[in-house]
Amino acid sequence: QVQLVESGGGLVQAGGSLRLSCAASGRSFATYVMGWFRQAPGKEREFVASIIWSGRTTYYADSVKGRFTISRDNAKNTVYLQMNSLKPEDTAVYYCAAKIGPSPEYDYWGQGTQVTVSS
């Protein structure tokens, strides 16, 4: 069983920055693909970014490319999402997720952290 706990959400003005953290349990964290997703009110959950086990390869949604950066520290079992140049449309609950097997589906999810960007 893997537990994921997000932190770092909050209220920020447009153009500001936030850094989300996700602490994971489990001795095999370094082997997991980690991802960030978000869900805005009335919308479906959407992919934001992901990072492979080594941190050398990352993927981003077009809507956040150039503004968000995903990274990980395997020694701390933690994945981060640095969010810069935030826009009101980035307002959502942000979820951390872990993929531990070959399936394209993510296996474990955190409880989410609210990010609100005011205009």
Which secondary structure elements does this structure contain, and how are they paired or packed?
Elements: E1 4-7, E2 10-13, E3 18-24, E4 33-39, E5 46-51, E6 58-60, E7 68-73, E8 78-83, E9 92-99, E10 108-109, E11 113-118
Parallel strand pairs: 2-11
Antiparallel strand pairs: 1-3, 3-8, 4-5, 4-9, 5-6, 7-8, 9-10, 9-11
Beginning-to-end CA distance, first to last residue: 40 Å
In total, the number of strands is: 11
Average pLDDT over all residues: 95
Question: How big a fraction of the residues is strand?
Answer: over 45%
Secondary-structure element string: EEEEEEEEEEE
* Model regions low in confidence, pLDDT < 50 over at least 5 residues: none
Largest sheet: 7 strands, mixed
The number of helices is: 0
Secondary-structure-based class equals: mainly beta
As a percent range, the share of helical residues equals: under 10%
Shape, per Cα inertia axes? globular
Rg over CA atoms, rounded to whole Å, is: 13 Å
